[in-house]
Amino acid sequence: MNPKDTITVDVPLFIRLLEYAREDAQTDMDLHDVAEKIISLASSGKTLTMDDYSSIVGSQEDIAEIRAWQVRAGIIK
Predict the structure, then answer these.
(1) Which long-range contacts does 10-19 make (Cβ < 8 Å, 24+ apart)?
(2) Helix, strand, or coil (residue 29)
(3) Greater confidence, 5 or 18?
(4) 57 burial type by CB count under 10 A (0-12 exposed, 13-18 middle, 19+ buried)
């Protein structure tokens, strides 16, 4: 069993998540959503890898669609 709120990720996923936070996340809520997904996926105690990336942040198409919605809603410019 995984201790509450403990996650393990491999280095490639860690680097990509940092890139996502810097380049793609537009709001704090984006980061909170990612954190919740990571915690949920890690609840089994497994090490998360790049295979889990699309489950965590979605595809590039998903990111682009969300960004377009946020622009239309006036959340971001």
Answers:
(1) 10/47, 10/48, 10/49, 10/50, 12/49, 12/50, 13/48, 13/49, 13/50, 13/52, 13/53, 16/50, 16/53, 17/56, 17/57
(2) helix
(3) 18
(4) buried
Residue 16 token pair? 């990509």
Residue pLDDT, tens place only, 19-76: 999 988 888 998 999 999 999 999 888 999 999 999 999 866 776 677 777 778 887 6
Catalogue the long-range contacts made by 30-36 (C-beta closer than 8 Å, 24 or more residues apart): 30/66
